[in-house]
Amino acid sequence: MGNDLIKKPYEKIKFTGNPDADYLLNDLQNYPHAFVLACIMDRQIRAEKAWMIPYEIKTQIGTFDFPQLLSQSLSKIKKIFINRKLHRFNETMANNFYLAIRKIHDVYEDKASTIWNGSPKSSTVVRRFLQFQGVGIKIASMATNSLARDFKIKMADKLCIDISPDVQVRRVFTRLGLISVEATNDELIYCARELNPEYPGIFDLSAWEIGRNWCRPKVPYCSDCYLEKWCPKAGVDL
Predict the structure, then answer these.
(1) For the chain, how many helices (H) and strands (E)?
(2) Per-residue pLDDT for 235 more than 80?
(3) Has this prediction a pTM greater than 0.70?
(4) Using one digit for the tens of pLDDT, what is the confidence trace for 99-137?
(5) Per residue, what are the HEC states of 160-200?
(6) Are 40 and 33 a contacting pair, CB within 8 Å?
(7) Residue 124 domain flag
(8) Which among 181, 208, 180, 178 is positioned nearest to 193, based on CA atoms?
(9) 162 in Cβ contact with 200 (< 8 Å)
């Protein structure tokens, strides 16, 4: 499944289910900062809600052009987050949103696409995402993986695109017997590296979708999962 996804031509990605929000997030040519900011927001809330945040900000200030976005004060952004209840951690994530805008301005001269332009090493892209406030290896890996897999952004390699240690991914790897219940996130990452060292993150989206759609913690829908015949714990609650 991972190989199929990476070989497919680019298709508009349905991040949120809202056509206008998805249009903004898919427009890397004009609004690459929308993708970066959405990645930073994807933390401890449903992915669809997190990825809606750039569009919610756009509707409040009337534009998402970078110069106008840069002109917004931290207090204004915090007010939008709190009034619109955009996130589980509104003040913290408003601060991260604001600081990300400043970093794109200060480091990348208002062009977020500089993060991935020029066929950089995958390690370079991951490292650049890690420099944003609030971003850990899970989000940095997810963002880099999405650029390579979904947007077909050229990189020199995929060696450092790791699997994201997400709860859904952990559950699938555990039920398949690839890691134990007690395994750390580091062990999950190294398991994927062991399985496919040239591109460890190739398993990420497929495992996440299986975990979210069928491999539930209680009463998993194993008969609907294409991995059922290979799963030693099919039907077992975790």
Answers:
(1) 12, 0
(2) no
(3) yes
(4) 999 999 999 999 999 999 999 999 999 999 999 999 999
(5) CCCCCCCHHHHHHHHHCCCCCCCCCHHHHHHHHHHHCCCCH
(6) no
(7) yes
(8) 178
(9) yes
User: What pLDDT, on the 0 to 100 scale, is given for residue 238?
Assistant: 65
- Same domain for 112 and 81, yes or no, is yes
Asked if residue 161 is part of any domain, the answer here is: no
The answer as to whether 50 is a domain residue is yes
Structure tokens at 53: 């945040």
Question: How many domains does the chain fold into?
Answer: 2
Q: At what angle do helices 74-84 and 90-108 cross, to 10 degrees?
A: 140
Q: CA dist 236 to 55, 127, 228, Å?
A: 40, 38, 12
Q: Which band of pLDDT confidence, cut at 50, 70 and 90, is reported for residue 16?
A: very high
CB count in 10 Å sphere of residue 36: 26
Instruction: Please state, in angstroms and rounded to a whole number, the distance separating the CA atoms of residues 39 and 210.
Output: 21
